[in-house]
Amino acid sequence: MAKTVLQPGPNHPITVTPNPARIVVTVAGKVVADTTRALTLQESTYPAVQYLPIEDVDRSLLERTETSTHCPYKGDASYYSIPAGGQRSTDAIWVYEDPHDAVKEIKDHVAFYPDRVDSIEVQG
């Protein structure tokens, strides 16, 4: 069965803009990500989400899981856990490896659930 693909529009706008602030993500005293090249994705009335380049993430701290979800606006998401964070950090990170064209900028970027990491510090 084909998955639904929807386009952003007036009733469900999505914007992706560069965020030059330094963003540092930590778990169990370890820096998982540190970047000044994040993208802010604002989707409809949801809270803004910071997408960080995967290049700026310490992948040695990640473990891919079998979890996947589908967003009709963004595509299929895959998930990673951060074992150093214990059970709380299961599926702490998601990535759209092949995002829909409307949000193609988030390819090769990941996002973090704030409640599954110790901190997401935005400086500046």
Automatic annotation (TrEMBL):
InterPro entries per the UniProt record, alphabetical: DUF427, DUF427_sf
Residues of the DUF427 domain: 24-115
Protein name, UniProt field: DUF427 domain-containing protein
A Pfam family: NTP_transf_9
